[in-house]
Design brief:
The chain has about 140 residues and is mostly helical. The protein folds into two domains: about 5-55; about 70-135, Winged helix-like DNA-binding domain superfamily/Winged helix DNA-binding domain (Arc Repressor Mutant, subunit A). Helices cover about 75% and strands about 0% of the residues. Helix 4 (about 80-90) crosses helix 7, helix 5 packs across helix 6 and helix 6 packs across helix 7 (about 125-135).
Length: about 140
């Protein structure tokens, strides 16, 4: 045997011994620990596995403000940029008075814009409008 092969052989033998000793130690732990400890260990294992799988499966939403509204859907429905802006404020949970103040328009104008939006989105409530706009990619 060459020197390199001998080192590899010794390394494999030592690895086998360590694995055997570890298995014996594991067997001792199984007999001495409570059942609840194993249940917690299994629960943590599956929670970790679930979290790992979720990061691989679920799509990530951009968090750096990189959202770009679906312009084709906006054009098809006839939604203007101003209406989309008001829709964003609506999605933030703002009241008509708050939207009017932030957009520098009257409350009646806000109501007119929202009424127009409801018709274009074919909805009758604020929550429906926000949900449909998100489904269409108009809102993040």
């Amino acid at each position: 045997m060459t020197g390199r092969a001998r080192v590899v052989g010794y390394g494999l033998a030592l690895a086998a011994i360590v694995i055997l000793l570890d298995l014996l130690d594991y067997g001792w732990r199984i007999r001495t620990l409570e059942t609840e400890v194993y249940l917690v260990m299994v629960a943590l294992l599956f929670a970790g596995l679930g979290a790992w799988a979720a990061t691989r499966i679920m799509p990530r939403r951009p968090t750096d403000g990189g959202f770009e509204p679906n312009r084709k859907a906006m054009a098809y429905l006839g939604i203007t940029d101003r209406e989309a802006e008001l829709l964003g404020m609506l999605a933030d949970g703002s009241s008509n008075r708050e939207i009017a103040r932030r957009a520098f328009i009257s409350e009646n104008t806000v109501k007119t814009h929202l009424s127009s939006l409801y018709g274009k989105l074919d909805v009758s409530r604020r929550t429906q409008a926000v949900r449909k706009a998100r489904e269409l990619g108009i809102l993040p």
